[in-house]
Design goal:
Distance between the termini: 21 Å
Number of strands: 12
CATH topology of the largest domain: Aspartate Aminotransferase, domain 2
Structural class: alpha/beta
CATH superfamily of the largest domain: Type I PLP-dependent aspartate aminotransferase-like (Major domain)
CATH architecture of the largest domain: 3-Layer(aba) Sandwich
Order of helices and strands: HHHHEHEHEHEHEEEHHEEHEEEH
Shape: globular
Helix content: 25-40%
CATH class of the largest domain: Alpha Beta
Radius of gyration: 21 Å
Number of helices: 12
Strand content: 5-15%
Largest sheet: 7 strands, mixed
């Protein structure tokens, strides 16, 4: 144990911070064992899908040009459809990020005169310009697609009464954001999402129910598509890419809606037939294979962080004992200095760019300065150890990722170290 302590000390972690972390970790053994069981279940699910779709060495070959008959691409989409228990899937490097995947699914399946409904309050910041809540070129609003939202109740649950009132003859698509985004509301369980979908479908059966699944894949043993979602959407540089995918996004769901997405991504008449994989298929397959265990490491890091900072008196969402439905951990510091120091710690613990100091800046798509810490192998990959947050009240930081549990642990301890050194946090005696 002395050797381990000295190893942490060599990385800048004081003996007091390390001892405090060890005490917290010791209390989480049973919790971590449950996470390992979920990872095992999901790992077997992914292997089964790969075996059933006869993944082979030829799937990793480079394809260029139009990409006609790209075996690796087509087989991978079958694997995703199998993992998510859907009719079809679109998994492409041409989908640049999670926001792009969501914008694709929305614009592909909405037409002028349709209405989009969010029954879970305001969507993630970058979707505001996609929808047209904040004015932007090419928004859905510019194409005559209207939008309305129903706020959550004070306790973070669905306001079924007002959701029912909001659904009308124009309501074409309902979007449900699983993760909290830059909010301090709870993330939704798959079971909760299933209840909401059933309620909506009970009012209007033909409405399309889409779930923004970002940060939620493989956290539970089931996905929103298992409980009635017509579309599930996500990013490959988050959970399902397993830290290896260098780019990409996915949409999985009913054949009709996926076909619409393919025509929107490429061109009417072309659809899924074009879009070469450009040599990224091995990383897509291997990343998906690793994803269940990578997600489990990120979950352990989130729970570790919640227990540390709750013990120190800070508001954390989810709290230290709540069940987990995504990999994000929010910690509210109430002042910008806390957010900045936390992010400095995460950056300092990174294998890449550890010497860089993150600073708040005006990022595209956000309405305030945002600070982001991420020393990642894939730029912007939030399944890797990262932390970010807007510099505005309530001054909360959002922590996620960690390809391995030891790295997630180091990141949290380093964040605490920075806060202690800055005089923001005092460790208990």
């Amino acid at each position: 144990m002395l050797e381990m302590t000295s190893q942490y000390e060599s990385l800048g972690i004081s003996e007091a911070v390390y001892a405090f972390g060890q005490k917290i970790e010791a209390s989480l053994k049973e919790r971590f064992s449950g996470i390992d069981q979920v990872a095992e279940y999901n790992q077997l699910k992914v292997i089964k899908a790969m075996q059933e779709r006869r993944v082979n060495e030829g799937c990793f070959h480079y394809a260029s040009g139009y990409g006609y008959n790209d075996q690796g691409r087509d087989t991978l989409e079958e694997v995703y459809a199998s993992v998510f228990h859907t009719e079809s899937a679109l998994v492409r490097p041409q989908i640049t990020c999670g926001t792009h995947a969501l914008a694709l699914a929305l614009s592909a399946n909405l037409r002028p005169g349709d209405e989009l409904l969010s029954p879970v309050g305001k969507p993630y910041d970058t979707l505001e310009e996609v929808i047209g809540i904040r004015e932007s070129k090419g928004s859905l609003a510019e194409y005559g697609i209207t939008y309305r939202q129903v706020e959550l109740l004070e306790d973070g649950t669905f306001d079924y009464e007002n959701i029912k009132k909001a659904i009308n003859e124009k309501t074409k698509l309902v979007t449900i954001q699983r993760s909290k985004g830059y909010q301090t509301r709870p993330s939704f369980s798959v079971a909760q999402i299933g209840e909401l979908i059933a309620f909506v479908k009970g009012i209007k059966p033909d409405v399309i129910c889409m779930v923004d699944n970002c940060y939620g894949e493989f956290v539970e043993t089931v996905e929103p598509s298992d409980v009635g979602a017509d579309l599930v959407v996500g990013s490959l540089i988050k959970n399902p890419g397993g830290g290896l995918a260098p780019i990409g996004g996915y949409v999985a769901g009913k054949e009709e809606y996926i076909e619409n997405c393919a025509y929107r991504l490429t061109s009417p008449g072309l659809g899924k037939e074009v879009g070469a994989s450009l040599g990224v298929m091995q990383s897509f397959y291997q990343g998906l294979f690793l994803a269940p265990t990578v997600v489990s490491s990120a979950l352990k890091g989130a729970i570790f962080a919640a227990n540390i900072y709750e013990t120190l008196g800070y508001a954390v969402v989810p709290n230290s004992t709540e069940s987990r439905h995504d990999i994000i951990q929010a910690v509210t510091f109430g002042k910008p200095e806390g957010v900045i120091a936390f992010c400095e710690g995460i950056q300092a613990a990174a294998p890449v760019d550890s010497y860089v100091t993150p600073i708040p800046w005006a990022m595209p798509g956000y309405d305030s300065d945002v600070i982001m810490a991420a020393g990642a192998f894939v730029q912007g990959s939030s399944i890797e150890l990262s932390a970010d947050g807007p510099i505005k009240p309530p001054y909360a930081v959002y922590f996620q990722g960690g390809l391995t549990w030891p790295h997630a642990k180091l990141g949290i301890l380093m964040s605490l170290e920075k806060l202690v050194r800055a005089g923001i946090v005092t460790l208990p005696e």
